[in-house]
Amino acid sequence: MISHAMFEASTTATYFTVDFTYPNENPPPLLLAHPLRNCAWHPQEEFHMDLKDKVALVTGAGSGIGKSAAIMFAKSGAKVGVLSDTQSEIEKTAKQIGESALALTADVSDPLQVASAVGKLVERFGRLDVVFANAGINGVQAPIDDLTPEEWDRTINVNLRGTFLTIRYTVPHLKKAGGGAIIVTSSINGTRYFANSGATAYAVSKAGQLAMVQMLAVELGPSNIRINAICPGAIDTDIEDNTQKRNVDKVKIKGKFERDIPLHNKPGSADDVAKLALFLASDASSHITGTPVWIDGAQALLR
Questions:
Q1: Same domain, 43 and 126
Q2: CA-CA to 178 of 20 to 30 Å: which in 117, 138, 143, 148?
Q3: Are both 17 and 58 inside the same structural domain?
Q4: Strand partners for 295
């Protein structure tokens, strides 16, 4: 039986205190039988939505969601490795953050480059606690009988293989640190929205990311590692500038994908997604794992 719960907030951090009361001061066995079994039981505990003394890696941090998250992580107390495949872009992000940032350049689809970047981060800051696997591309959007195998491979390699490699080379360090948090940027495409015809390669990569997250939640739970997926809808970033569309009008479903957003009637911002990433990276979400969180203003629910 839960006796009561108290929720508080301060100007420096958001936290809550929950007071559970059970017979004989012990929780029921069911609460202990879960993958996060290494978590200690505390009848009363405070959880802060900050990353003080933590070290984080953010991929795709040169712009958009990744850049906003890296800046927010640093403001919340973390040392941050900011990674992009464009050196000039990522150096600007690191400069904006300051001494608590390390600029890393790597192609996330290349295992040697990813392993090297992760090694440099751990060598610089001594540990790793949070991984935000955010790097991704829209790739080429075209009818399935127009899309080339090379275009398919490029999208899958960056989005899905890149996520795998990021997790593959960071998990050993998270285990060494005693646990941590992984956040993956998926999408409403391929998880809750399927009317964006022509974006098949992208949607498949995003569905694969969510499957990976849910598989690994069970596998990594005993190591006290949480992993969750953020699934954005239309977000006001410049990713569309790097999207190649070819003959999509032939297969496009009529609709106003970017404009039909019930909440606020406009796309979300990179900061909106960054705040969600901060929550999932922090101890405030300590019992959340294997969960997709759609952040789309109810956009995908219209179809």
A1: no
A2: 117
A3: no
A4: 232
- What CATH number corresponds to the domain at position 245? 3.40.50.720
Total tally of structural domains belonging to the chain: 2
Write the pLDDT tens digit of every residue in 255-278.
Answer: 554 458 777 878 778 888 999 999
- Angle of helix 162-176 relative to helix 111-125, nearest 10 degrees, comes to 30
Rounded CA-CA distance 132/171 in Å is 12
Q: Are residues 8 and 92 in the same domain?
A: no
Last residue of a domain, one of 14, 33, 48: 48
Domain co-membership, 127 together with 225? yes
Mean pLDDT of 106-124: 98
Do 60 and 83 touch, CB atoms closer than 8 A? yes
Range of the domain at 12: 1-48
Q: In this structure, which amino acid lies at residue 144?
A: I
19: left (phi over 0), alpha (psi -120 to 50) or beta: beta
Rounded Cα distance between 228 and 209, Å, is 10
Give yes or no: residues 200 and 245 share one domain. Answer: yes
Active-site annotation, residues: 202
* Residue in this structure with the two tokens 């090694």, named with its chain if needed: 119
Min mean pLDDT across 12-21, 69-78, 271-280 is at: 12-21
Name the one residue in this structure whose structure tokens are 């970017």: 258
User: Which three-class secondary structure state does DSSP give residue 158?
Assistant: helix
Alpha-carbon 268 to chain mean position: 16
